[in-house]
Design a protein that fits this description.
This protein has 471 residues and is an alpha/beta fold. The chain has three domains: 179 residues, 3-Layer(aba) Sandwich (Rossmann fold); 64 residues; 204 residues, no CATH class. 54% of the residues lie in helices and 8% in strands. It has 20 helices and seven strands. The strands form two sheets. The chain has a five-stranded parallel sheet with strand order 2-3-4-1-5, sandwiched between helices. A two-stranded antiparallel ribbon has the order 6-7. A hairpin with a 2-residue loop joins β6 and β7.
Length: 471
């Protein structure tokens, strides 16, 4: 069994064969854009961290290469130890060379001109070195003359550098034309939003000012919000309009659609071999346990949609759940909705998880926290099948927590009262089914007749904390 999800690699013959999210259609759209605007532009592929952008661009890159496009993949995060992005970008361009001509060497010579660093601070240093000393006028005049000479060289260097940039871009066009098989070169820059802020900004500046030539299409695989944070950090101001700033560099933006939780959950369920546990021969002996697998996958799909999890977060929770199940005997009750709810709470609301374990909440406080986390407004707009899954977990949570905090020498606090044929909750809830306003109450009544109605919440938390087999 895998404990960590491995990167999905593109298949050589069918690059999107291993894609579990049906994303080939988006790649086809982007390829069409490339074909229609072959002269060159900058495309931003925007998506949050953990939504599978790297996997997508790798598969798209493979499909472009299959269509005879020259491509370059540059992981900016892995290369931000370089102080000068131009060096790294030129190094990647070398991969295009397919003959023994001198075009690349010629390009490097032009690049040298625009990468020379003149240090204006040197002129300041010449003067400041003596400013606080008892110096003669001759020494001061000599230092001023030295500074003037440096300034003259800087001006000369500026003129040369400006012409050098023109020469470099002209040479770059020639180089691309000689090595692109009459198609634009697709230069993919990934993980830019994870770089050091100064490096991220430098890469953007170099792409804009040095590499914006005919025949190169840059693809920036980014999370615009995170990249915007890097830009604000670099300039030391939260007042910078990052949308306007990035518009200087980006010609076309494409938002990668959110992944389908249904498809991805089913894939993860299979990948982590949950069937091995849920449908084991031992577990299938008990009718009460046979539906746990289908309940688990149905609930996780709805939970991921409710919480808008990224793919990375979904993978993480599924991997943790499968690891935990390794320590649980196949014939034990799991209560899958409650199990996964508490796993979610431990990962994203640790203070609440600890408060539950440490008996610091009243029943009403527990209900309020639960319904805040799982977006009651969203739940009440869903179909009853969806609401039932959450009410199922909430009812188990309330009942098991009530058992957990009860004093064994006193009567257990009641969760609902009975007056004749009428039953009413002793706490308030905002979650109601569309067809059954008393759905949570009915679950509690049903569970109260369950043979395990004395189970405490630590029955689940011990499993999640991998303490199930520790006495």
């Amino acid at each position: 069994m895998e404990i960590k999800h491995k990167e999905l690699l593109p298949d050589k013959e069918n690059p999107f064969l291993n894609c579990k999210l049906g994303r080939q259609k988006y790649a086809n759209v982007l390829t069409t854009i490339v074909q229609n605007y072959a002269d060159g532009f900058v495309l931003a592929l925007n998506g949050e961290w953990g939504t599978g952008k790297t996997t997508f661009v790798r598969m798209w890159q493979a499909s472009l290469e299959k269509a005879k496009y020259k491509t370059i993949y540059f992981n900016a995060w892995e290369n931000d130890l370089e102080n000068e992005p131009l060096t790294a970008l030129l190094g990647e361009l070398k991969k295009l060379v397919n003959d023994k001509t001198d075009t690349y060497k010629s390009l490097l010579k032009k690049g040298v001109v625009i990468t020379k660093n003149i240090l204006p601070a040197l002129a300041k240093g010449v003067i400041s070195k003596y400013m606080d000393s008892n110096i003669t006028l001759d020494v001061l005049e000599n230092s001023i003359n030295a500074a003037t000479e440096i300034l003259e060289k800087e001006v000369e260097e500026y003129v040369n550098k400006k012409q050098g940039l023109i020469d470099f871009k002209h040479e770059l066009e020639k180089y691309i034309e000689a090595n692109n098989d009459n198609k634009p070169v697709i230069f993919i820059i990934d993980e830019l939003d994870r770089c050091r802020p100064d490096y991220a900004v430098e890469v953007l500046e170099k792409v804009k000012h040095f590499f914006s030539v005919k025949g190169i299409i840059f693809v920036l695989s980014i999370d615009k919000i995170q990249l915007g944070n890097s830009i604000q950090g670099y300039y030391g101001s939260n007042n910078i309009n990052t949308e306007e700033y990035l518009r200087r560099f980006i010609d076309i933006e494409y938002k990668l659609p959110d992944p389908n939780a249904n498809d991805f959950c089913k894939y993860l369920f299979e990948y982590y071999e949950f069937n091995e546990y849920f449908h084991s021969e031992e577990r299938n002996k008990y009718s009460e346990l046979r539906e746990d697998g289908s309940t688990f996958i149905s609930f996780t799909i709805k939970l991921f949609e409710n919480q808008k999890y990224t793919l990375r977060q979904q993978e993480k929770l599924y991997a943790q759940a499968r690891l935990i199940l390794r320590s649980i005997p196949n014939n034990q009750f799991l209560f899958p909705t409650l199990f996964f709810m508490l796993l979610h709470i431990k990962n994203f609301k640790l203070n609440l998880y600890n408060n539950i374990k440490n008996k610091k909440l009243t029943i009403q406080e527990l209900v309020d926290e639960f319904e805040k986390i799982f977006a009651v407004e969203y739940l009440t707009s869903q179909a009853d099948e969806h609401i039932r899954l959450f009410c199922n977990g909430e009812a188990y949570l309330i009942m098991f927590y009530n058992n957990y905090i009860s004093n064994p020498y006193l009567l257990k606090p009641v969760l609902y009262t009975t007056e004749g044929e009428s039953k009413n909750l002793t706490f308030t809830t905002k979650i109601n089914g569309q067809m059954d306003e008393n759905l949570l109450l009915r679950f509690l009544i049903h569970f109260n007749n369950f043979s395990g109605n004395d189970i405490k919440i630590d029955y689940i938390t011990n499993k999640i904390d991998l303490l199930n087999n520790i006495s």
